[in-house]
Design goal:
The protein is α/β, with parallel strands linked by helices and 308 residues long. The protein has 12 helices and 10 strands. It is 42% helix and 15% strand. The strands form 2 sheets. It has an 8-stranded parallel barrel with strand order 1-2-3-4-5-6-7-10, surrounded by 6 helices. Helix 4 packs parallel to helix 5 and helix 8 packs parallel to helix 11. The relative contact order is 0.17.
């Protein structure tokens, strides 16, 4: 409560750079009839008061660097990161396929002047159908492959594109709970692998974001700001619901209605004394096209009230 009181008195978060992402407009795929067009997203994210955005799924925004630079510049927007999906626990056999996916996105990310690449592990079950794709628990050898191949990715991305990778713990992946996140961090080189702490996904999987920041602060290189509706989460857990249907049910909610409280998270991140992006992501695929803009405006106003 002390942190919340301090922030409510007008404390400024000078090291936190706030942004939003296509995810907050219900965008999960490069092309989907249920999603708003990319130009509407750019118009509305700028109108909401955000300066920074992520690329979202590769191919949703224009992939020609010159065109994308023009489209973002004239709206007063800048890119903070790109996003890639990986299954690196499968070992060297998937490297070539992984790198083909990563290199195109890393190239565009670099061209847009960003410095971060968000790395999301592959799902162990289909996020729409719930079909189990592989065991939810990694073997010791798969953990070793995950650590070593992620370090390799961090090295290659930095050497070739000058980007830092930030690995994103995510529901229905193998990097999810406090135990698994700690195991992953302890197994990887801090010089090559940092963390994208998504406050919503971490809460969804039972984690405490403030505790993680206080324990592994030197590993936190990026933030996604998100909240979970505890009542809906209880239903999701009771029904063992896959992540996609859980989102459609409304498990990720508009701040400040859910958990974790974002004021203490932002205060803990500010205390690290480093510059951090904090990108709002309210998963809500699919959603009505007129729903995101009012939420985005209210969320930006809320974060300003927190000093961000």
């Amino acid at each position: 409560m002390a942190q919340q009181t301090e922030l409510s008195r007008g404390s400024r978060l000078t090291r936190i750079r706030i942004g939003s992402a296509p995810d907050s407009w219900g965008v999960w795929f490069p092309d989907d009839p249920q999603q708003v067009p990319w130009d509407r997203f750019l118009d509305e994210v700028a109108a909401s008061g955000y300066e920074w955005i992520e690329l979202g799924p590769y191919g949703y925004l224009p992939t020609d660097p010159s065109r994308l630079a023009d489209e973002t510049r004239r709206r007063g927007l800048k890119v903070s990161a790109g996003t890639v999906f990986t299954g690196l626990h499968h070992g060297p056999d998937v490297w070539d396929r992984t790198w083909e996916h990563v290199s195109a996105i890393a190239g565009l990310t670099q061209a847009m002047g960003a410095r971060h690449l968000v790395v999301i592990p592959s799902f162990w079950r289909d996020d729409k159908t719930g079909e189990v794709l592989e065991d939810a628990t990694l073997t010791p050898d798969q953990w070793r492959q995950l650590a070593s191949q992620t370090e390799r990715l961090g090295h290659e991305v930095r050497e070739r594109y000058g980007l830092d990778i930030v690995v994103h713990p995510h529901a229905d992946t193998h990097i999810d709970t406090e135990e698994n996140v700690a195991r992953f961090l302890d197994a990887t080189d801090p010089a090559l692998v940092s963390l994208c702490l998504d406050t919503g996904h971490y809460a969804y999987c039972g984690g405490d974001s403030v505790k993680l920041i206080e324990t592994y602060g030197e590993r936190v290189g990026y933030l996604h700001l998100k909240q979970v509706d505890p009542a809906v989460l209880a239903e999701v857990r009771a029904q063992d619901m896959p992540f996609g249907p859980a989102v459609a049910r409304g498990v990720m909610c508009e701040p400040p209605a859910g958990v974790p409280a974002l004021e203490p998270v932002l205060a803990a991140a500010e205390k690290l004394g480093v510059d951090l992006f904090a990108i709002v992501e309210q998963d809500m695929y699919p959603c009505a096209p007129d729903k995101p803009l009012p939420i985005a405006r209210r969320t930006r106003a809320f974060l300003r009230s927190c000093g961000a």
